[in-house]
Amino acid sequence: MKVIVPVKRVIDYNVKVRVKADGSGVDLANVKMSMNPFDEIAVEQAIRLKEAGKADEVIAVSVGVKQAQETLRTALAMGADRAILVIASDDVHTDIEPLTVAKILKGIIDEEQPGLVLCGKQAIDNDMNATGQMLSALMGWSQATFASELDIDGDSATVTREVDGGLQTIKVNMPTVVTVDLRLNEPRYASLPNIMKAKKKPLDEKTAADYGVDASPRLEIVNTVEPAARAAGIKVGSVDELIEKLKEAGAV
Amino acid sequence: MSESHQDIRDAVRALCAEFPPEYHRKVDAERGYPDAFVEALTKAGWMAALIPEEYGGSGLGLTEASVIMEEINRSGGNSGACHGQMYNMGTLLRHGSDAQKQKYLPRIAAGELRLQSMGVTEPTTGTDTTKIKTKAEKRGDKYVINGQKVWISRVQHSDLMILLARTTPLADVTKKSRGMSIFIVDLRDAIGNGLEVKPIPNMVNHETNELFFDNLEIPAENLIGEEGMGFKYILDGLNAERALIAAECIGDGYWFIEKVTEYAKTREVFGRPIGQNQGVQFPIAEAHIEIEAANLMRFEACRLFDAGEPCGAQANMAKYLAAKASWEAANACIQFHGGFGFAAEYDVERKFRETRLYQVAPISTNLILSYVAEHVLGLPRSF
């Protein structure tokens, strides 16, 4: 079984994000970029499936700008076998929308015929949480989102999902799209020999047009603003004063 | 490898992130050795970076090795616990025989053997290395070693050591740099059989020792290269060491700058952040400028070393500049942290002690100045 893992190049989670002066988005110039952390968990899970003999090949895919090949090299250094980069924009500030990504992934799946697609549940830059679900619909496949456990057994997969009320365990038919949550695993860091090997692994470059997909945006960003700064607190002398202040603030 | 070696940096940082400041603080307080950290680095292949691929390593150069060391120090660790294998490797790779490489390199690459120690300095012989008194006498198929060494690091956490000893007395050689040879000493066989190791407690948590050789026998096949040419061979190792330590100081420097910048932005006194005062800003900015400048010389030294070109001047100058810059950064960092700089939980005092070492070891600042004055500029010799 082949496993496809889509990975997104996003602003590193350690970076303090700054909004661009014109409000069109966040500033990405000279900012450290990394693999979306949820996608890292998906890559790790795919590699573990391969190590357990349940997958034969792990293919990492990224849709975006040319620089996303660094993200793919990271996936290859972790242990993916090969990578496909689909260039859909030459501007790092253009976010490729979930439906576009899903359509391109469908094109890749039609060619590669994987038995499983493992996605991060969402990307930490736009928090859309949509690509996996859209892909499942386009393919007509089952889906299991927010996975915190995954067990594949022949034609079906048992997935424990993190839902609002706790944990839900479902069984889905293969092939399937699984989107992974934070607690599924702890991704490994790449070893030096694997970084060196990754440089020699195949990385195919395609364009959105190769899959007949128009990558131009359908959504318009009206404005981007920073969250309001937190106001200073006050100290109260007693419980009574606390209640009084909360009432004044309309909080109780 | 790209110019910035971002892939190496990211991967080393990810590994280092598993060992938070609390870990290094505890090792320091216990005067312990960071076993788990060095083991993780070894397992992930970082300690075998310089070993050629045919022997199971990654075949990288000193430049990449220096990036690894820099990132360890930049992440709050101390490469002093493990940099020996990096600078010793050059000596073995360039001057070891095929048989020696075949015997040791695959096992070092696999993490089964450690080559972390180099025995050069003696109690009565510091930088005037040609005066060493430790001698190796050939008897049949063995060399017999007698003498004493001091400040020999990581001996208790290494399996092998490269040893410099006189094979021809100073009086009998035409050039004083001749007549010395280098050997691979298997510490596991040697300790207790003619080699005694006496640890030296010190200001930083650095495992360093006095060594006493009393008729230690080592197989003649452990001679590296040609007998009598050892001084020339060891210089390669020393230059590599200088460049690597420059990189470590640069890592320390960035750590101090980041730490003090963050603190100066958030620490408020008289209703405003202390970093708003130019008296605070300027020493930090000055140290940053010096680190960036030292970094250029460090990459130049590494480039020359990797190209097999002479790099003594650049390696020494890089170490001078970097050690000075990291010390300036350390000083600014502890100063602007005020009392907190002395509290162990801020890690500043530990890094401050660690980086101070590098103005003294492995060569003191004055001797670099003397080297540049006399060997680079051709001024009259003072000694």
UniProtKB/TrEMBL annotation, chain A:
Q: What family does the entry list?
A: Belongs to the ETF beta-subunit/FixA family.
**Gene name of this polypeptide:** etfB
GO molecular function terms noted in the UniProt entry: electron transfer activity
Q: Which organism is it from?
A: Planktotalea frisia
Q: Does the keyword Metal-binding apply?
A: no
Put simply, this protein is called Electron transfer flavoprotein subunit beta
Does the keyword Amino-acid biosynthesis feature in the UniProt annotation?
A: no
Keywords, alphabetical: Electron transport, Transport
Can you tell which superkingdom this protein's organism belongs to?
A: Bacteria
Q: Name one GO biological process term.
A: carboxylic acid catabolic process
Q: Write out the function statement from the record.
A: The electron transfer flavoprotein serves as a specific electron acceptor for other dehydrogenases. It transfers the electrons to the main respiratory chain via ETF-ubiquinone oxidoreductase (ETF dehydrogenase).
Instruction: Please describe the quaternary structure of this protein.
Output: Heterodimer of an alpha and a beta subunit.
InterPro entries linked? ET-Flavoprotein_bsu_CS, ETF_a/b_N, ETF_b, ETF_beta_N, Rossmann-like_a/b/a_fold
UniProtKB/TrEMBL annotation, chain B:
Spell out the family assignment given in the record's similarity comment. Answer: Belongs to the acyl-CoA dehydrogenase family.
Q: Which residues form the Acyl-CoA dehydrogenase/oxidase N-terminal domain?
A: 2-112
Domain of life from the UniProt record? Bacteria
- Quote the EC number: 1.3.99.-
| Organism name | Planktotalea frisia
Gene Ontology molecular function, alphabetical: acyl-CoA dehydrogenase activity; flavin adenine dinucleotide binding
User: What InterPro entries is this protein classified in?
Assistant: Acyl-CoA_DH_CS, Acyl-CoA_Oxase/DH_mid-dom, Acyl-CoA_Oxase/DH_mid-dom_sf, AcylCo_DH-like_C, AcylCo_DH/oxidase_C, AcylCoA_DH/ox_N, AcylCoA_DH/ox_N_sf, AcylCoA_DH/oxidase_NM_dom_sf
All residue ranges annotated as the Acyl-CoA dehydrogenase/oxidase C-terminal domain in the record: 228-361
Q: What is this protein called?
A: Acyl-CoA dehydrogenase fadE12
Name the cofactor(s).
Answer: FAD
The lineage, from the top, is: Bacteria, Pseudomonadati, Pseudomonadota, Alphaproteobacteria, Rhodobacterales
Which Pfam families does the record associate with it? Acyl-CoA_dh_1 (PF00441), Acyl-CoA_dh_M (PF02770), Acyl-CoA_dh_N (PF02771)
Q: In this entry, which stretches build a coiled coil?
A: none
For this UniProt record, the keywords arranged alphabetically read as follows:
FAD, Flavoprotein, Oxidoreductase
Oxidoreductase: present as a keyword of the record? yes
Q: What residue stretches are annotated with the Acyl-CoA oxidase/dehydrogenase middle domain?
A: 117-215
